[in-house]
Amino acid sequence: MQTLLLYKNKKEVFLFIFILVIIFSSNLLLKYNNFLNFNKNEIFTTEVKIINVYQKEKFDILKLSNNNLVFYTSCTKNNFFQNDFISITILTNQVNFYNYLKGFYTKSFNLFKLKPQNILFLNTKKYINNQHNNKNISEIFNAIFLAIPLNKELQSTISSYGIAHLIAISGFHLGVLSFILYYILNIIYKYFHTNYFPYRNKRFDLLILVSIILFFYLSFLSNQASLLRAFVMYIFAIFMLRWNIKLLSFSTLIICILFIIALFPKLLFSLSFWFSICGVFYIFLFLSYFKHINKILLFVFLNVWLYLAINPISHYFFELTSIVQISSPIFTMLFSLFYPIELFLHIFNIGYLFDSYIDILLNYNISIAFVKTNIYFLILYIVFSLLSIKSKKYFIFLNTLIILYNIYLYKSFISV
After folding, report:
1. Of 135, 122, 83, 131, which is closest to residue 342 (Cα–Cα)?
2. What digits encode the pLDDT tens for the residues 258-316?
3. Interatomic CA distance for residues 44 and 57, integer angstroms
4. What are the helix (H) ranges across 291-324?
5. What is the spatial distance between Cα 105 and Cα 90, in angstroms, rounded to a whole number?
6. What is the DSSP letter of 294?
7. Do the strands 85-91 and 43-55 form a parallel or antiparallel pair, or are they unpaired?
């Protein structure tokens, strides 16, 4: 069956964009109304969850969040820990609407610890921690399964391997998890489908069942931002598959991006959101030219090319560089096996089995350097990335830029 386009003509495109503008404006208006309630007094008291604790010599900086706010504040050394729920009073007079959406820093007082709101979450964290003697390894699996941020030192170690995208839960994890669920549910559902309702679309039914399980997982993680946007894209993809709409399309990707921003305007200020969009864009770009090659070769080549293609963008924001990062594509491919294996090991309380190997990696002495992408090169790179959508000659030139940049990146590291 021939795939369909998401739209038939320009009229439908303008109509869809108009609907998105209405949705975006409504959500922005709702956010502004919340901001007015937040800002009507100079002080504001609320209940928040501690997302992370950044320890300084004489004080701590807390990253705090609830359904409406993400902000930072400093406090004296106290008995506050990651994932604690606290009541806090903050000053609002220096916070404008832009900062309210983006996230802000403010002074605070009257911080009080509250009773845990998600006992199941805390028990799961404890269950994971009890399987490991090494605190850093516990943190890694808490990040992978529960989206709990790593401490600063461990984050630096993970970044030196170029695998931060594997630890911070995202659409990649959602994709692997959905594949595992689909495979397991297919075994169970196959009998019922064959014997009781063979007339139904089995693939669509399984995707819906997987979506329901993923929704509960998302709720369990308190609608963690990166997983939430990945889930929305997943539902969007199911819709397109159901109606036989062309999935591998840049116009579809643009509409999906606009749809997500319309639903969640705060994502405009999320760097991780734009990185995930870059990842999907370069996957689409690669597949548009190489989708017909052998599937095994495609899987390997895609992971290598994607890593090299993202480097010019990622190193504009994150300068940490090491020669070991070249192994990132290998770790990414292995993670597709490592993640489901570790998931089942942790379910059966034997998650410690590979701890000795992980500990070797964590304690390996890696030399690092700091290399930042030049802004003018970055602009040139993005321009040719977009031009490559329509022209193979631009895509060839883009690959020349990718090769030259990565030679520069690691040559400069070696020369340091």
Report:
1. 131
2. 888 998 888 888 888 888 889 889 999 999 999 888 888 998 999 999 999 999 999 99
3. 28
4. 295-317
5. 10
6. -
7. antiparallel
Distance (Å) of CA 165 to CA 18, 162, 329: 34, 8, 11
Structural domains of the chain, with CATH = 1-36+172-268 (no CATH), 41-117 (2.40.50.140), 118-162+291-416 (no CATH)
Strand partners, 61: 54, 74
Can you tell me the distance from the alpha carbon of 189 to that of 175, in angstroms, rounded to the nearest whole number? 20
Q: What is the pTM of this model?
A: 0.86
Q: Which residue has the higher pLDDT, 415 or 241?
A: 241
Q: pLDDT per residue over 48-75, tens digit each?
A: 888 888 888 788 889 998 888 889 998 8
Cα separation, 108 vs 92, whole angstroms: 10
Q: How many CA atoms lie within 13 A of 287 on its CB side?
A: 13
The share of the chain scoring above pLDDT 70, in percent, equals: 95
Per-residue tokens: 177: 């998890």
Measured at the CA of 159, the angle between CA 158 and CA 162, to 5 degrees, comes to 100
**Confidence (pLDDT) at 416:** 47
Query: What three-state secondary structure class fits 190?
Result: helix
Q: Which of 1-15, 23-37, 309-323 shows the lowest per-residue confidence on average (mean pLDDT)? A: 1-15
CB 245 within 8 A of CB 6: yes
The DSSP letter of residue 162 is T
Under a CB-based contact definition with an 8 Å cutoff, are residues 95 and 106 in contact?
yes
Asked if 80 contacts 86 with a C-beta cutoff of 8 angstroms, the reply is: yes
Report the 10 Å Cβ neighbour count for 315.
20
Check if the beta carbon of residue 224 is closer than 8 Å to that of residue 142.
Answer: no
**Residues 148 and 142: beta-carbon distance below 8 Å:** yes
Contacts 24+ apart (CB under 8 A), 174-178: 174/214, 174/227, 174/230, 174/231, 174/234, 175/230, 176/335, 176/336, 176/339, 176/340, 177/214, 177/217, 177/339, 177/343, 178/210, 178/214, 178/234
Position 246 scores a pLDDT of: 67
Tokens of 251: 């116009």
Q: How many residues does the chain have?
A: 416
One-letter amino acid identity for 382?
Answer: I
Dihedral of CA 192/195/196/198: which sign? positive
Q: How far apart are CA 5 and CA 14, in angstroms?
A: 15
